[in-house]
C-alpha cells in the first residue's frame, strides 16, 4: 500500500468552485446541469483612478492643472480649498447619494481635486459632475406615485351682509347721546310703572296718537327748517335794513351839535289789522327781538274785533303768532318769569291771559261778567309777583274807577277789588239817603320798581294818585297833574323817586313823588299819546304825539328841548299811539292808528353815556344813572327851596 | 297746515325763484321747479350738506349744521337742513 502512487495534478481549477451547477431552465422546465463551471477566483481587486492621458477626461484634467498652477498663493488657496472641500464633499455627497455606491472612494478623491481646481475658477460656470468612467452606474428608482384624487368638503356659508359705515367723531358722539337717552327713558319707565292703571292707559292712547300723527303728515316735520328759511329769505330781501340795524351809526351826528335822528328800519304790518289801531306794544322779557302788538280801536263808535300779534325783528313780513278776539284789545303785558304768558285787557272790560305756547287762538283764561269784569274798557294791565300761594296775579285799571287784582286760582280768574278811585269831595246825596261816590276813571297806572306796594294811577280828570296796595280806600297822595286825561305814567327805571306823565293836554311832566309840583314840563304842541323812559339811561325818554312826531329828550344834555323831533308817520292820515324802547338794542317801536308798527334806530347822539374824565374809572350801573338824575333835579329844586 | 302756509309765503316772497323739499335719501318730495332741475339740485345739494355737516361735527361733535348759504353771481341758494329733511330755497337777492 505504501508503494501505491498517488498522482498529484496541478490544475488551474478553483478548488472552491462548485463541481457542478444545476440550474433550472424555464425554457425546458427542468433542472439542467450547466456544462461549464466558472473556475476563476479573484484574490484581490483594486479600482484604480488612472486615466488615459490622451482621452477626453485626461486632456481636460491637464488643462485644469495648468491653470491652477498660474493662480494665487498656495496657503490661502489651501485653506479655502479645505473649506470648499468640506462644502463640496457634503454637497456632492448629497447629489451622488442616489446612485454611486462603488465609486464612493474615488468620487471623494476626485471631488477634492475638483474642489481645489474649482476654487479659483468658481466664478466660471459650474463644472459638470465628474463621474467614474469605468464603474459609474446611475440607477434611479422611484416609488409609485399614487394617483391624486381631490376630495373637498365645504360647509354651508354663513349668510353674509354688506355693511358700510363711517366712524366719525360725531357718529361716536351721537351713539353715546342715544345711549344716555335710552338710559333716561328706562328710568322714566320704571317710575311710570308705579302709577295708576288709568294713567297708563291714557299714556298708551297718547302714544298711539303720536305714532299715527308722525306717520300721516311728513311735512309738519319741516316746520323748523321752514321757519329758519323764511327768516333767511327775509333777511336777504331786507338786507340793507338788517345791515343798518346792526352796524349803521349816523356819522353826521357829530356835526349836528347835539341833535339826534331816528333811522327808520323795518315796518311791520299784517293785512288783517289794516283797519285796526295799535293799542299796546310790549317787548318780550326773554327774547329780545320778539314783541307783542295789541290791536283794537280807540274810536267809541267804531268798535270791532281785536287782534294780538307777536312779531320778531327777524321776520318783518309775517307775525310769528296771531290771536284774534271779539273785542278790541286795549293793553297787554308780558309776565317777567313766564315769557309765554300775556295778560290782556279788552275794550269790553274783560281781561284774559294768553299762553303763547298753546296752539289755540283763544285765551287760556278769561274773565266774564260773572267773575267781575270791568264795566268800562281796561286801559292797563300789569303782572305782579306771585302771591303767597304761588298763584299768578295781575292788576288792571279801567275807566269804571276800579283797580282790580286778578289771581289765577286753579285755572280760574278770581278778582279782588284793590281800590276804588273815588273823586274827592264829590259825594252826592242819592235817593234814600245813600251816599254815592262818583268814581274817577283810571286810564293808566304803573308800579314802583323797588317798592312793591307803591303805585301810581293816572285818571281821566288829569289827576295822578299815589296809592298803596294795602290801603284800599285812601290814597297816599294826589297830584294835580294835567288838565286832560293822563295817558301814561311811568316810574323812572333807575331813580326811585322820579316819574313821568303825559296827557292829551299837550304836555309831558316829570315829577318827584315827594314834591307836589312837577320838576320839568314840556309842551309838545299836540296831544301826547305815549311816553316811555329809555332802559339804558335815566335821563333819556321819548314821547309820541298825535301829529305823527316822535320826540326824544335827554335831560343831561338839554333840559328844555328835545334832541330829536322827527315825523314818523304821514301827518294827516295817521296818528301815533304808542312807543316802546327795546331793552337791549337801540331801537324803538312805534305803533300808529292804521295798524302799522315802525321800528327806528336811535342815532348815537341820543344814546350818549356820560363822558369819562381822564384818570377816573367809568362807573357803570344804576348808581351812575341815579346820580346823574339827582344832579339835575337838584338844579331844579334849589331855586324852589329858596323860594 | 301752518307749515304749508309758511312754505307758500316763502315761495311768494320777493325774489324767490324756487323751493324744494328733499328727504333724507336725497329724493325730492315737494318742488316748484321742473323735474330734471329739481333732481339735479336735490342730488348735488344733498351731498354738499352731508359734507358740510360732517365737517362741522368733526371739529366739535356737539355742534351741528343749522344753515348753509351759497351766494353766486346770479342768485343765492339757501339750504336749511333738518334731522330728516332738507329745505332748499333759491332766491334772487335784489340789489
Task: Provide a descriptive summary of the structure in words.
- The complex is a heterodimer of chains A (643) and B (95).
- Chain A is built from 8 helices and 32 strands.
- Chain A is rod-shaped and about 215 Å long.
- Helix content of chain A is 22%, strand content 29%.
- Chain A has helices at 56-70, 74-96, 104-118, 169-193, 197-216, 223-237, 239-247, 622-642; strands at 21-25, 30-34, 262-268, 277-283, 290-296, 306-312, 321-325, 329-334, 341-346, 351-355, 365-366, 378-383, 393-398, 402-409, 412-420, 422-429, 435-439, 442-447, 454-459, 463-468, 477-480, 486-491, 498-503, 507-512, 520-523, 528-533, 540-545, 549-554, 564-567, 576-581, 587-592, 597-602.
- Chain A has a 4-stranded antiparallel β-sheet with strand order 3-32-31-30, covered by helices on one side. In chain A, strands 4-5-6-7 form a 4-stranded antiparallel β-sheet, with no helix packed on it.
- In chain A, α2 packs across α3.
- Chain A is α+β, with helices and mostly antiparallel strands and 643 residues long.
- Mean pLDDT of chain A is 76; it is low at 75-80, 89-109, 200-217, 612-619 and 639-643.
- Chain B is α+β, with helices and mostly antiparallel strands and 95 residues long.
- Helix content of chain B is 38%, strand content 28%.
- Chain B contains 2 helices and 5 strands.
- A 5-stranded antiparallel β-sheet of chain B has the order 2-1-5-4-3, with helices on both faces.
- In chain B, a hairpin with a 5-residue loop joins β1 (16-22) and β2.
- Chain B is globular, with a radius of gyration of 14 Å.
- Chain B: Residues 3-91 form the Roadblock/LAMTOR2 domain.
- Chain B: Its main location: cytoplasm.
- Chain B: It is found in: Cytoplasm, Cytoskeleton.
- Chain B: One of its GO terms (biological process) is microtubule-based movement.
- Chain B: It comes from Aptenodytes patagonicus (King penguin).
